[in-house]
Amino acid sequence: MSLPCLTNESEKDFDDSRKALTALETYLGNTVNTLESDIQKTLNTLKTHLGTLKSNVGSKVKRLDGDLKVLEEVFRKKKWIKHNGHCYYYAHEKHDWFTAERRCREIGGYIVKVDDSSENT
To answer: Which InterPro entries does this chain map to (predicted)?
Structure first.
């Protein structure tokens, strides 16, 4: 390409600059394409990991639900009763106070004495 009114040296400088800019444009285009490809690969990997995590969490939640049902059944069979946000174990064996208190501590509880009917409601 020849531009009127430019010296040969200016025209050469212009062409060199144009070639350098074209090379830079190509390099930047290739870099953008590479980055887009890398980002897509990373995104796909993250989606795969997220799917795996979701599946693992779902399995653990199901297992915990099953464990909770088993615990619920165990508590029911062991005569534990929930009342006003607390769990109570009603024992039908007869013991003196100190033995009863020790038995309560062995199962992680405390002995309770109900003084009036309002505590039973």
So the answer is: C-type_lectin-like/link_sf, CTDL_fold
Q: What confidence tens digit (pLDDT) does each residue in 1-54 have?
A: 566 677 888 888 989 999 999 999 999 999 999 999 999 999 999 999 999 999
Residues 73 and 101 in one domain: no
Give residue 118's domain range: 79-121
| Amino acid at site 59 | S
| pTM to 2 decimal places | 0.49
Measured CA to CA, the distance from residue 50 to residue 72 in angstroms comes to 32
Exposed / middle / buried, residue 109 (Cβ in 10 Å: 0-12, 13-18, 19+): middle
- Structural domain contains residue 1: no
